[in-house]
Fold this sequence. Notes:
Helix content: 40-55%
Strand content: 15-25%
Number of helices: 8
Structural class: alpha+beta
Number of domains: 3
Distance between the termini: 46 Å
Radius of gyration: 51 Å
Shape: rod-shaped
Strand order of the largest sheet: 2-1-5-4-3
Oligomer: single chain
CATH topology of the largest domain: Beta-Lactamase
CATH class of the largest domain: Alpha Beta
Number of strands: 12
Largest sheet: 5 strands, antiparallel
CATH superfamily of the largest domain: PAS domain
Amino acid sequence: MQSLRRTLSVRFAFTMFTALFVIALWAFLGARRVLRSELDRGLAAAAHIESAVLVIGHTLPPIPSRSDPEAFQEVNRFAIARDPAGHVLSVNTPIAREMPYDSAALAAARRDTVAWSTQRWRGEQLRSVYLAVAHDAPGDDRVIQVAASLGPLEGAARTMFLLMLGTVALGTVAATLGAGWLSRSATAPVAQIAAQAAAVAPGAVGQRITAHAEVEEFNRLVGVLNGMLERLDRGMLAQRRIIADVGHDLRTPITAMHGEVEVALRHPRDPEHYQRVLRSLLEEIDHLGTISDTLLLLARIEAGELAPQRASTDLGDLVASAVRRTQQRVSDHPVAYPLPEVAIESVSVDRNMVGLVLDHLLDNAVRHTPPETPVRVILTGETDAVSVSIEDEGPGVPAETLPHLFERFYRGDAARGRGGAGLGLTVAAAIIAAHGGTISASPGNGRGLRVTVRLPRTA
């Protein structure tokens, strides 16, 4: 696994080295070109001066020098007067007599053109300019050659290049040290944030990350982590509440069954008594089975294992069937279903799943309201959706309870909490969400509770 700090340092140092090397190379090439240009200008100026000297009848001014190879670089300019054939007529220093010439440049100079040539002599480069004397004295066929060694220039260029390489090396070292400091400074907050995140204790709630939350660049990261912790807190609290509620809901029938069996076993009983006990036990077992089946159904829906099998369905007929089932099962609650004023077109839903939702909602309205409380079912159609509202005139629920009605095992106040596993509305919400619809709860007209299911017409 790569270290971010090391990666930043290496990349920054390499970038600085590359930039400094390119700059140094560009500067070296530019300086070398300028030096060569200045040398050529100096040679050309010397050639014009020596030509003028020859025109007025003087010989080339002598320059004292040795003849050994080391003397080659001591003379700044070598001047040689040549005839059209290239023979040496006069020189400004004896060593110049041995210098070669370029026949092509000599011929070009005779055509009154300034000609240039670079030749190798005595192991060094020799730069020469050729200029016809005739440009100052017509008829004069002599050609002046002024030459200079490129050795000093190349030596100066090499020295400059080495100095630039040293500058690049020092700059790279400084950049590496600076990159290390910069990377440590840049990654230190991340390490502190990670340390605080790692210190969050399992199962604890309310813990938040505060390191560098005031820094703009890290505020978003800290905000994302704190948001995740907040969601985990909510999930943890909900899980604890669910476990407690499930334990309570399971313990109630188990305790009842245990008590009845214990009482029945204290003394011999007649068969009718044992039958009553068994029937009571069967009811509690059915209650436990309902809780288990509902939890399994909810888990399959949320896991996507139980997808709606959609088909074109007459929702009005589906609502009427649910109302009839409720009327047959319950006799102490009048359930009204006024026909819609406008015909409702078919919707694409799973008939069995939506029917289960309607049964849950109607059962919830009947079980959590006093006897003889009217329940009304209202079906309305919209452009792209159909809504079903189930409204009762019971005691209603507090406003702060409404947002939690569709949570697992949630129970409102005691007036509406008579029995049940607390999963009916949760299953209904999961089924409606699987259809792409919404379910909501609000106060009824004046009092009571209204639960509204909104389903899209198409998938």
